[in-house]
Amino acid sequence: MAHMGAHAHSHDEHHDLESMRLMGFWIFLITDCILFGTLFATYIVLHGNTAGGPTASELFEMPGVIAETFILLTSSFTSGLAVLSMNQGNRKGLIGWLVVTALLGASFIALELTEFVKLVHEGATISTSGFLSGFYVLVGTHGLHVSLGLVWMTALMIQLGRRGITNVTRRKVNVISLYWHFLDVVWIFVFTIVYLMGVM
Amino acid sequence: MLDQIKEFASGFFVTGDPLIYGADVAIAMTMIAVVSVLTYFKKWTWLWREWLTTVDHKRIGIMYVIASLLMLFRGGVDALLMRLQLAVPNNDFLTPEHYNAIFTTHGVIMILFMAMPLMFGLFNLVVPLQIGARDVAFPFLNSLSFWLFFFGAMLFNVSFVIGGSPDAGWLSYPPLSGKAFSPGVGQDFYIWGIQISGIGSLATGINFVVTILKMRAPGMKLFKMPMFTWSVLSSSLTILLAFPILTVTIALLFIDRYFGAHFFTLDGGGNPMMYINLIWMWGHPEVYIVVLPAFGIFSEIVATFSRKRLFGYASMVFALMSIAVFSFTTWAHHFFTMGSGADVNAFFAITTMAIAIPTGVKVFNWLFTMYRGRISFPTPMMWTMGFIPCFIVGGMTGVMLSVAPADFQFHNSYFLIAHFHQVLIGGVAFGYFAGLYYWWPKVFGFKLNEKIGKWAFWLWNIGFYVCFMPQYALGLMGMTRRMSTYGWDRGWWELNLTSTIGGFLMGIGFLFQVWQILHSIKFMEKDTTGDPWDARTLEWSIPSPAPHYNFATIPVVDSKDAWWEEKQRLVQGEAPKPKPPLEPIHMPKNSGIPFIMGFCWFVAGFGLVFDWLWMAIPGLLGVAGCMLAHSFNYNTDYYIPVDEIKATEAAARRSV
Amino acid sequence: MNLTRGMRRLAALSSLIGMTVLLSGCMDKFYVLDPKGPVGRHQLDLIIISTLLCLVVIVPVLILTFVFAWKYRNRKDSKAAYQPEWEHSTKLEMTWWGIPILIIIILAVITASYTYKLEPSKPLEHPAKPITIQVTSLDWKWFFIYPEQGIATVNYIQFPADVPVKFELTSDAPMNSFWIPQLGGQIYTMSGMAMNLNLIADKPGTYFGTAANFSGKDFGKMTFDAIATTQAEFDKWVQTVKQSAPPLTQDGYDKLAEPGTMGTQDYSSVPEGLFEKIVTKYTGPNGHQHVHKVEENLPVNQDGGGEAPESSAHHHH
Hints:
The complex is a heterotrimer of chains A (200), B (656) and C (317). Chain A is 86% helix and 0% strand. Chain A is mainly α. Chain A has one domain (26-199): Up-down Bundle (Four Helix Bundle (Hemerythrin (Met), subunit A)). Chain B is built from 20 helices and 2 strands. Chain B has 2 domains: 1-42; 43-591 and 636-655, Cytochrome C Oxidase, Chain A, CATH 1.20.210.10. A two-stranded antiparallel ribbon of chain B has the order 1-2. Chain C folds into 2 domains: 39-71 and 93-118; 131-297, Immunoglobulin-like (Sandwich). Helix content of chain C is 38%, strand content 20%. Chain C has a 6-stranded mixed sheet. In chain C, strands 4-10-9-6-7 form a 5-stranded mixed sheet. In chain C, α1 (5-24) packs across α2 and α2 runs antiparallel to α3. Residues 285-317 of chain C have low confidence and may be disordered. Chains B and C meet through α5, α9, α10, α11 and α12 of B and α1, α2, α3, β7 and β9 of C.
């Protein structure tokens, strides 16, 4: 009897635990917002300080950036589809959409790295000017977030393959999809403040 | 080959100062002693199983307290060395370089590696017990926070003997802290020591916000929470909003130094004033982060020892929260003299003064908690009574400093030094001491010796005024902070000598506290009541020390002073509330990952300090590996069976 | 706010540091409390006003603390009232929210008006024409240029009393702060900009000046004398410096700017535009034009810009 009771109790408790973890992640995202907010602030302070080096409008090439934006937005959509599949209990669909999301994320990173390499070859490095320092660190921090997300997503796919959809893996999928949407929102700001306002 | 090694070693180790050689020997001997004792008594497994891998908030709290007291010792020795140097004019006891390093490490250690961990220690020791929870929300993360703090602090302290200490002031303003003016590794130790422990602080902030919002006992509405818990909530929320700014600022300083970027450099379009703004956007809230919990501690203690409800509960909560909010609107008062113009200065002057209002209200509420009470004065209450006059005088000089045009005459002088020591020692240190004395019996099951404690109290208190009152005067005499020496002609030396004497009185006070702890461990009787102060909140309703699951059954709360009310009901002859039957308790398992991950951060940080990628990269890979290992580990919890709970409770002489 | 001198002294004595001052008894060393110019005097007024306003709250609180602690201490035969359940009184709480708010409003109004009045970059009202001294903080010495007189000094300044002095402040080293407490408050010296501080010395005298913001190794040795004399003596001093002191060359300045300490020094002349050159050392007024884009005849960025050789190195490719 006691055992049965404990078991029923433990289900509730696990549920509480997982909802608490989700809340913890929301709060982490608040701190991450502040982190990005501070980087945006430094970028805005420094964006005119080109120290005789190239300016934003001279450097940025929009086609590539628009492609990056489109890819990341799509990946946000596919991560949403992954969550939908999960809610329908469709493990294959879930993993499939996560794979698509990760591939899109990886191509975003590849495009961003290509852009960085090209800029560096043009002589626009992190040590060229305050503007470029701010640019590389802001955009690079976003890219680093996406890259960490990719590693994490891969680890999660393996766990889903092994364990299927449980309370714990469900929460993990919810968390990473939250993270992914968050990075999408941050990118919209990067796109607007850094690129659009840079070339205008 | 030998010459190469010699050359490397002379650059790697700090050499040429007898003080440091002495410290080297002391450190080496302490380490040998620790290792020998652990080996001789076969305690290595015990250390690993019971402490290094623990996720129990109570043990993590104890480790925080021990580490912070060690840091208090180091920071205190720094302070006394400075005071010795300044005791007489034209002193060459310390070279300017050494003096600069010492005031830098004193500041960093006291705020980030003493006050913060002592605060986190008290959070851990008290909050879950006070809200009727079995642990914090994220016990693994809690352990990780501790080890990040610990290894961050170690990395910072290693600079004392390896590579050289930072010496650009505790906030390391560029351009002085930039590569051009500080080419050595000291600044890099500063950056990585703070960065690693800062991530831990941020995680602790998240942890306690969720713990307090989600894990309170049934019936404990937000407005029935004990005031210390409220203060922890306000402090943790402030951490969430402030610490990311520190993380970014320090990271940018590192990027400037390491990659030659131009955030804060003079050339290349950098902007050093941006650093000063950013660091204070964290730094000012940081001061409130450490003082808010002290306010919470005083609130608990005043109510307990006045044997009366806390006066003006709602006002107190509102004051805590408004201080937390206002703390983000005052940062520029740290540089009124930067020429920002009258508009900016007037704005920040007024927001700064405004903080005095809720702070003043808190003092009145404490006083009126005492009014028509029955006040007894054991050591926790004595520290509280020492705090009130000290803090209000410090607060008054704070308001004086906030008057922008007057600040032009106070800024960076010893008047400022006296002010912030008065609020940080009188407010934070006295508060945490009061908290330690108050909750000590809960943590260890015995009280600290009152007689030695009173000696310590008076030495600290008298020492404080003897040390810092002359510094107000010195500020008005034009003595600026961070001067490594001064001439006979200034007329400063009598007051400086007095100040030094006061500093040593506080040092002796600290020794009394150490003696008090050792003496009490040996001689004090075990407290069998679990409630030696006849206190008011839930932590006192369980045995001391608390069993590792804290509460055998989770209490149901229906009033603010839950435990006090229950005791009153018992006195009035009401039957105790029926307790629900025992059930197996769900607990988190210990984990070695936080310790290993902290160590990997240390390795990575050390590698980055010396620009040794062969060391930094494996360190960072280790960090990533630990995170993955944790992610793949699903075997993280277990159940304590009912029989074991019964046995534990019986052993604590409680009937179940 | 026109406190008399005696009042000011008295208030400062009794309220600020009370016993300490009385014991040491050398009032003239308390520079902040013994101002010798209008700026310092106004600042002292403010210090006294803010102190007195704070004391309105602080003194009753201190008294209440001791009275309550004594009266309600726990003893067997205590006749004092005991109300363990009393925890709220709207009237009382309104009082101690209200009084501090009132005091802070008063102080805020006073502070704001003084902040505009004492804005250090604002020229002082005075019949005499101001004299300009250009201040540069170096590692670890003070360098002063007299643009109107064409001379320069190190680690001391001389200027006429009762004449406004306009200090233009910059730095050719980590930031510092320039402070002559008896004349008035300090202002930071920062590279890449010239900030203004206006002060007057009422009477001739030698005033203590000091660096106030930590700038590295020998920061503690950066004190200097600010000597106010009569106009005639000042003119004579300028003549003497012009005739007897060596000239300062650009090389001489570069040597001077190297880290180190030294005593005082005079220079009979200064290279043309040296101060402006120091100010714009890192952020040239014309901006360093981006080589690559100039060749393509594209619009050139005008803002920011840097003269620093290390940053220009990156532009060639």
